[in-house]
Every structure is written in C-alpha cells, then in structure tokens.
Amino acid sequence: MTETTEQLALGRQKIVEDLRVLLTDSEEMLRLAATVPGEGLDSLRERLRTHVDTLQAALGGAQTSAHRRYRSATVQTERYVRQNPWQSLGIAAGVGFALGLLASR
C-alpha cells in the first residue's frame, strides 16, 4: 500500500469517526431540546431530526461502501495469490526483507 493510499484510508476513517461523534452529539441535542418548551424550538427540533436522519443514512452508506470495497480487495488479492503463487511468495519475501532492514536500524 502506498503512502498516499494509506493517508486516504486514514482520512476516510477519520471522517467516519467524526460523523459518529457528530451523530452522537446531534442525538443528545435533540434529546435535550425535546424537554424545552417553545414555538421556535419546534422547527429547530424538526431540522435537527432531519439532519440526524440524513447523517445516519450517510454513515450507513459509508460503512456499506467500505465493507464492499474491503471484500472486493480481499477477493482480488486471494485470486492473485492463487493464480501467481511464486510471484506472491517473492513479493512477500521482499517486503519481509525490507521490513527487517528497517526494523534493524
């Protein structure tokens, strides 16, 4: 995995974590707003509920997409290893050697 790919994966993971925090905070605000009386708060509650529902759907979609990509990468990797066992072994040995060199420094 290249450095750019790793950074993108970490960025996506951070976004998903931030969405979870935002969702939790929004649900808590909605729960607290339900106990406060007022006419203007009714529209605020509705907008907040809409945003929470949208965020839940987006987070579910992101998780589904990530799971689908993970499964696809797993299947493709397994297929490559089965079709090219010697090349896979050579790549693994090379990576192991490079990591050993880095670890010994």
Comma- or semicolon-separated keywords:
single chain, DUF883 domain-containing protein, mainly alpha, 3 helices, 0% strand
Structure description:
This protein has 105 residues and is an all-alpha fold. It has one domain. It is built from 3 helices and no strands. The two termini are 22 Å apart.
Distance between the termini: 22 Å
Oligomer status: single chain
Overall mean pLDDT stands at 79
Shape: elongated
Number of helices: 3
**How many beta-strand runs?**
0
Which percent bin holds the helix content? over 70%
Order of helical and strand elements: HHH
Low-pLDDT regions: none
Proportion of beta-strand residues: under 5%
Largest sheet composition: none
Structural class: mainly alpha
Family: Belongs to the ElaB/YgaM/YqjD family.
Main location: membrane
GO molecular function: ribosome binding
Subcellular location: Cell inner membrane
